[in-house]
Amino acid sequence: MLLITALFCVLGSGLAVAQKTCPGYRASNVQQTSNSLTANLNLAGPACNIYGTDLRNLTLTVEYQSASRLHVIIQDLNQTVYQVPESVFPRPSATEGVAAADSQLVFNYTENPFTFSVSRPSGEVLFNTSGSALVFESQYLRLRTSLPSHPNLYGLGEHSDHFRLNTSNYTRTLWSRDAYGIPQGTNLYGNHPVYIDHRGAKGTHGVLFLNSNGMDIKINDTAGQYLEYNTLGGVLDFYFLAGPSPVEVSQQISEVVGKPAMMAYWTFGYHNCRYGYRDVYEVAEVVHNYSTAGIPLETMWTDIDYMDARKVFTLDPQRFPLAKMRELVAYLHAHQQHYIVMVDPAVAAQSYSAFNNGNSTDIFMKSTDGSNFVGVVWPGPTVFPDWFHPETQGYWNDEFENFFSPETGVDISGLWIDMNEAANFCNYPCSDPAAFAKAQGFPPKPPPVRDGPAVALPGFPADFQPPTKRQTMATSNKTGLPGRKLINPPYTIRNAAGSLSNKTLDTNLVHYNGLVEYDTHNLYGTMMSSASRNALLNRRPGERPLVITRSTFLGAGAHVGHWTGDNHADWSQYEISIPDMLNFASIFQVPMVGSDVCGFGGNTTERLCARWMMLGAFQTFYRNHNELGNRPQEAYRWPLTTQAARNAIDIRYRALDYLYTAFYAQNQTGKPVLNPLFYIYPRDPKTFGIDAQFFFGDSLLVSPVLAENKTSVRIYLPNDTFYDWNAGFAPVQGNGSMVNLTNVNFTTIPLHVRGGAILPLRIESANTTAKLRTKGFNLLIAPSRDGSANGSLYLDDGLSIEQTSTTFINFTYAGGHFSMSGDYSYPANVSIERITVLNVASAPQGIVIPGAPMSNFTYNRASKAVIINTTIPLTQDASFQLP
Ligand SMILES: *[C@@H]1O[C@H](CO)[C@@H](O)[C@H](O)[C@H]1NC(C)=O
Ligand SMILES: *[C@@H]1O[C@H](CO)[C@@H](O)[C@H](O)[C@H]1NC(C)=O
Ligand SMILES: *[C@@H]1O[C@H](CO)[C@@H](O)[C@H](O)[C@H]1NC(C)=O
Ligand SMILES: *[C@@H]1O[C@H](CO)[C@@H](O)[C@H](O)[C@H]1NC(C)=O
Ligand SMILES: *[C@@H]1O[C@H](CO)[C@@H](O)[C@H](O)[C@H]1NC(C)=O
Ligand SMILES: *[C@@H]1O[C@H](CO)[C@@H](O)[C@H](O)[C@H]1NC(C)=O
Ligand SMILES: *[C@@H]1O[C@H](CO)[C@@H](O)[C@H](O)[C@H]1NC(C)=O
Ligand SMILES: *[C@@H]1O[C@H](CO)[C@@H](O)[C@H](O)[C@H]1NC(C)=O
Ligand SMILES: *[C@@H]1O[C@H](CO)[C@@H](O)[C@H](O)[C@H]1NC(C)=O
Ligand SMILES: *[C@@H]1O[C@H](CO)[C@@H](O)[C@H](O)[C@H]1NC(C)=O
């Protein structure tokens, strides 16, 4: 029997813990069925108790849940140790599973010491714990897998590092944190302990660790390449996903975390926000300015400025009075535009209705003495809803119903939730929140009141014109071991906020159902997300809610979208916005995602904002947002930015149904709406490290310029046929090398259509998405090298969760033959008005489309494009042959 030694990290005191031998576990009573394996794991020697107490008796359960998914869980025999509650993370159903023999994954183990491996039937080892003893203690779990050298690993967020993870001396800490400036190498707002391991021709697999405790995941290559989980609690609960392609791994992740929620059509329009609009007049001015600048604004947002002294569910009676807010929203709705505001979880600890309602139902988090736990957020001293309390959803629904009432309140179309890590400005221990709030100036002083806007706002109502002057401790399974050190556990994770409880809720707080904040901290934001989605659904039953949240956990995408938090207006964060977004869309299954376009913190520049307005047009969630005190950065503020925004929104809107169809595919099948290059070219090693380019959908390659005064960019073009969007779709043959693009002016973003695609584009853009839906289509056929292409189009009413009639059309093109077939139930009332076929060798003699009036076609000898003007209704199959 092997005793395995390991190295331990340096304690805060600076003293190195001596190398210590942990005994590991011995497997016994191994029981195997065709689709499962169970065993007892008993401590195999004297306890080492390095960061807590070794648990003596564990169980192993291995389930072949599907051909591509293997579930391995090592838990305490008693099942007392905390596990992520089913109510927050429903487990994937695996009613019967598959026979081990039919699985793409092979589980193998050694009995003593117990180690396990997961391999492919070919023998390729994907996960192997044999290098190091398993440690399972009351407050520390460690599991290490060895990996091949120089692995291509992705995921393990939320982070702002490069998409392909550093694999040498690298620590990823997971612990929700109000991470202003989203610094690299630190724990950020959300927690998604899932990675993808891409091995090129040997395939791709995924490993999802279902654990919400604070943890450090260490990836290092000094004693051989390994990845090691160091977690403060929970159990070892793993889902291994076989792929074998990257897209399939993403789809298999969606089978575990849930398929992402479908979003309403309008949510893909352009959004504008900032922190620091002084009053409702300034909000109206911005709406007006977008309109006069000719930049389509779909949705106007307001940050916490609208609140009365920063209290949630209130309006500043002088700057954002209810009557004027209702007029503003009415104006927006009359123009087919939308309005969204921010809500924080923290409720001001003062007598007002939102506090009193919550206090009387007693749903706020409690301190150990049973009183409300008080921290400090924007309004000063605040309390925090306990999302585990059974009355909290009702409380939240009521606040939403009243405050956001379409009849009497602020009729928002969507919701933005922030500070839900939960963030608390007060340092631990927050013993005198009132004094802290006072000393730090919370709530901040609002701007002076004024009677109206500075300029006339044609079209707005007259009063928008410038003035003519308790606590029950449940005892049940999986709720946590007693007797733990919940504030300062023996093992210290690398939390950039300092100790676990610093700047958040105290980790010894006990939720209504007995769970402790120590175990559930990482769930707070995602629970607020679900409760807020439910509250929106309660207001408008049957409509797809848009909720954009800061903090997330595994599975958040089934409920909400995410913006990547408080970034900075600089070029490095512009660039890193791509991998940050790809993590969420392509791995974590939170496909509605985007950065604060033009940058939140600091002053942006005309050129950065112009470039970001264009890059942001290829985020699924597209919003410009700025921080209080910075130079204004609405898209119309500078000439270059204005033109860049017009150009990029024009492209985005023409391609909006292509986006909507791709998003729907992710909602239905988990296939990512955004793709890193290696998802499309998994056998091309040169793509594995690229994260400054990506595919919007699976066919539009986006390659932004990356620096302030640059009008050139070196991009990678795989060995494939592309068409240059900005050069009349001229064919470009990629050959698997870097290409230097020059003369990319400040209002252009390089875009290439991948050969083999058929894109359903609207024939022209529009000012709002409602208007856009009345435009006909231009089918762009971009053949691959072998002359074939395909694509699809999904249409529905754009809003309802349950659709009664939808249209789904498949388009194919091969050997000059085009055909479309599908189901045409949704009455779109528009037609395909144009078909553009690229790369046609010679002019067709004549084109006949049975059943469709053909006005004319042209052939452009230079670009080799055939342009067919026609009217094909979206009600029936059609086809034609290019002779
Ligand atoms: C628990 O593990 C110890 C060894 O550490 C073993 O002696 C004991 O029998 C186990 N108990 C059970 C209930 O399996
Ligand atoms: C497990 O349960 C047994 C019997 O109830 C108890 O004696 C033992 O202390 C428990 N072990 C742990 C680690 O909680
Ligand atoms: C499982 O592990 C044992 C012991 O290490 C080894 O002999 C056997 O070949 C392995 N089986 C497979 C299928 O990898
Ligand atoms: C990686 O290994 C080196 C050498 O053992 C060690 O100094 C370093 O702390 C390790 N890094 C991590 C993240 O564990
Ligand atoms: C490992 O990373 C840590 C933290 O980033 C750094 O302080 C240390 O010097 C690095 N060690 C090695 C061996 O690179
Ligand atoms: C798609 O989105 C809808 C609406 O959010 C949701 O109800 C559904 O579960 C999602 N996934 C599938 C496979 O329908
Ligand atoms: C909150 O409710 C408790 C009773 O549950 C009451 O004692 C307390 O005064 C209330 N707090 C405030 C500030 O109203
Ligand atoms: C724990 O779960 C077991 C098996 O599901 C059940 O028999 C037992 O009653 C549960 N214990 C508690 C305290 O809920
Ligand atoms: C809490 O954070 C503040 C601000 O970063 C820091 O000064 C303080 O040392 C931290 N306290 C603890 C207990 O980590
Ligand atoms: C940003 O610009 C504003 C003026 O618009 C100025 O007051 C502020 O100091 C600038 N901030 C920085 C960080 O340069």
TrEMBL record:
Gene3D superfamilies assigned: Glycosidases, glycosyl hydrolase (family 31), Golgi alpha-mannosidase II
Top-level class of the enzyme under EC nomenclature: hydrolase
Reactions listed under catalytic activity: Hydrolysis of terminal, non-reducing beta-D-glucosyl residues with release of beta-D-glucose; Hydrolysis of terminal, non-reducing (1->4)-linked alpha-D-glucose residues with release of alpha-D-glucose
Composition bias type Polar residues, residue spans: 468-479
Ranges of residues in domain Glycoside hydrolase family 31 N-terminal: 103-214
Record's GO cellular component terms: extracellular region
GO MF, one example: alpha-1,4-glucosidase activity
A single BP term in Gene Ontology: cell wall organization
Limits of the Glycosyl hydrolase family 31 C-terminal domain: 670-759
EC number: 3.2.1.20, 3.2.1.21
Domain of life: Eukaryota
Subcellular location: Secreted
Coiled coil: none
Principal place of residence: secreted
InterPro entries: Gal_mutarotase_sf_dom, GH, Glyco_hydro_31_AS, Glyco_hydro_31_C, Glyco_hydro_31_N_dom, Glyco_hydro_31_TIM, Glyco_hydro_b
Keywords: Carbohydrate metabolism, Cell wall biogenesis/degradation, Glycoprotein, Glycosidase, Hydrolase, Polysaccharide degradation, Secreted, Signal
Signal peptide boundaries: 1-18
UniProt domain Glycoside hydrolase family 31 TIM barrel: residue ranges: 260-662
Annotated stretches, region: Disordered: 461-481
Record-stated family: Belongs to the glycosyl hydrolase 31 family.
Biological role: Glucosidase involved in the degradation of cellulosic biomass. Has both alpha- and beta-glucosidase activity.
Family matches, as PANTHER family: ALPHA-GLUCOSIDASE, ALPHA_BETA-GLUCOSIDASE AGDC-RELATED
Protein name listed in UniProt: Probable alpha/beta-glucosidase agdC
